[in-house]
Design goal:
It is a single chain. By secondary structure, the chain is α+β, with helices and mostly antiparallel strands. The chain has a single domain (4-72, 79-177), classed as NADH Oxidase (3-Layer(aba) Sandwich), CATH 3.40.109. 36% of the residues lie in helices and 14% in strands. The chain has helices spanning 13-26, 46-49, 67-71, 79-105, 130-136, 183-187, 200-211, 223-227, 230-237, and strands spanning 31-36, 57-64, 110-113, 141-142, 148-149, 157-164, 193-194, 197-198. It has a 4-stranded antiparallel β-sheet, with helices on both faces. It has a two-stranded antiparallel sheet with strand order 4-5. The protein has a two-stranded antiparallel sheet with strand order 7-8.
């Protein structure tokens, strides 16, 4: 059992949060948040539940994708988008490892969840939902496209999660939504996004089709990520 007097920051969750946020900025992350896992723990994959049992908080880190690469998408994924997608996931995983090292040096546990790893092939799910963690960390909302939408970056962010027992001040979900925007509906090549919801089966069929393109070989698309207008809205507001 820890001796609270021997561990810096044991009673300073806000101070701990600020220190980790500074580390995230140093690592080039565009988004940082902390979620209380209580409301979403039941959504974890069975293989994660025991390891995460004594870890009450989740650190959510977001890395912005390249606008130039996304804006060049016309009807599905390109080879350069595939490489970028994989490079961003690798970068997120490396940053997560450095966060774990920092947490352990402070005397706490850190469990990094891969940025992109499927453990439930039928449901196409990972150990947990990074976007759900980000939502409960206050980084955005789940949009019509079923992506996490951030007010400043739209859907153009990929996320990684680190579970920890470090005392941290947590965020909370934001009271925002997509409003009347339907930009992703018209751009979805699978017609999987409608005013009534998101059709995962239709999306998966199109992803499988894209994966058969020469050089792609993975289940990616990128069109709904490109479609979200929130980054453009933010740029216009700041001109």
């Amino acid at each position: 059992m820890r001796d609270p007097q021997s561990i810096p920051g044991e009673d300073h969750p806000e101070r701990n949060r600020q220190a980790l946020q500074s580390l995230a900025l140093q690592e080039g992350m565009c988004l940082f948040g902390v979620a209380d896992l209580g409301p979403i723990r039941e959504t974890f994959h069975l293989s994660l539940q025991q390891a995460a049992e004594r870890l009450p908080h989740a650190i959510s880190l977001g890395l912005r994708l390249s606008d130039a690469i996304l804006d060049a998408l016309k009807d599905g994924p390109t080879l350069i988008y595939k490489h970028h997608y994989k490079a961003v996931n690798y970068c997120l995983d490396q940053v997560a490892l450095r966060f774990v090292r920092h947490l352990q040096e402070q005397g706490y546990s850190g469990l990094p969840i891969p940025a992109s790893q499927v453990v439930d092939w039928e449901g196409q799910k990972g150990h947990l939902s990074h976007k759900l963690v980000a939502k409960f960390a206050g980084l955005g909302w789940i949009g019509r496209s079923s992506l996490l939408i951030n007010p400043f970056h739209g859907a153009r962010v990929r996320y990684v999660t680190i579970l920890t027992d470090m005392p941290l001040a947590c965020g909370s979900p934001v009271s925002l939504d997509c409003g009347e925007c339907q930009a992703c509906i018209s751009l979805c090549p699978a017609r999987a996004i409608t005013g009534n919801g998101y059709d995962m089966a239709a999306c998966m069929e199109k992803l499988k089709e894209f994966s058969s393109r020469r050089g792609i070989g993975v289940l990616i698309c990128g069109m709904c990520v490109r479609a979200c207008p929130f980054p453009e809205v933010h740029r216009n507001l700041n001109r």
